[in-house]
Amino acid sequence: MADxxxxxxxxxxxxxxxxxxxxxxxxxxxxxxVKPGDEFIxxxxxxxxxxxxxxxxxxxxxxxxLTIVHFLxxxxxxxxxxxxDLLVVDILDIxxxxxxxxxxxxxxxxxxxxxxxxEHYPHAQKSxxxxxxxxxxxxxxxxxxxxGLIHPGLIGCxxxxxxxxxxxxxxxxxxxxxxxxxxxxxxxxxxxTAHLGALKGEKKAKAAAEAARTVPPREHGGNCDIKDLxxxxxxxFPVYVPGGGLSMGDLHFSQGDGEITFCGAIEMAGWxxxxxxxxxxxxxxxxxxxxxxxxSPIKPRYDDYLIFEGISVDEQGKQHYLDxxxxxxxxxxxxxxxxxxxxxxxxxxxxxxxxxxxxxxxSGVVDIPNACATLWLPTAIFDFDINPSSAGPxxxxxxxxxxxxxxxx
Length: 409
Ligand code: ZN
Hints:
Bound molecules: zinc ion
CATH topology of the largest domain: Jelly Rolls
Oligomer: single chain
Strand content: 25-35%
């Protein structure tokens, strides 16, 4: 049995757990040391540290202070790992915590976080998903059931001081270029809610003022939200500090490509069973700038999809040049309009796209002026036939069940 080297108690605030942190900084102390070849288990909070509750109100999604996220377990030191090495991480298994077999999905208010379709869904909404072994259903989104493709949304190694400075030097002026934008262009360091594990006192205050927020993916990996980083996959992370300092969290029971709902996929607390190795000088040997990974040998099997196309012409009919973001948004909006014909609210359809094993593909980026993105919706996740037919769509979802909504006050 692999040892559990990081434990979390879901009834305790993550701020009370010194094996947890919510910023990236080279001075965060290692919480444990392992050797290459070791297997071990790490428990994690959900990304909000338990702020979002299993209930029928979206008030928590509306009211959350987003400067507290993400609560990560670590950093873990690996003996012998040096800057320039690659840390090889095998994700041997992942699961939900036994005392917490549920997850949440939501949309943040446009005024507090927003999301991919925030102009269309500007209010806080939430759906709760219950797990039955490997499957999930939601009492707020009827008519769908799918197996989990469980993965950490966020995993990576600590930055060194130089890399941290690079992040701050490029992100802070960028955010300041549109200071009044809602939502903002990014998230600057914010000391008040920083939790740097066992780092305390003056050292903590100094680090907290410059520690990077955990929201974006960066060179070290971080919040990549890649649904295929599931159990059985192997990741190669660049090492920047002695020991590497591997941290992780933001576990997802399932997620559609893009994690378009932002709060977030099906978010859960859980555990990971890991094994680590070190590839000496792997960064230079393989020309690595960002992590690379190998997929899992197992995956939910879907043979049939309904595929929605989107092009880089926005909702107002404005032309954009090869803009994949605009094109994917159109593909998602097209899928939502289609699902509404079966009785779903737009919010429920949006939630399905954020949670189910939906695939997003960049299909064309050269055919000027339009990029083409596609959204692949597995037909078998629905309790009914969603294919087009001469009889037309029938309303399988009667509207009696809706997702909780909490407009701003
Ligand atoms: Zn997440």
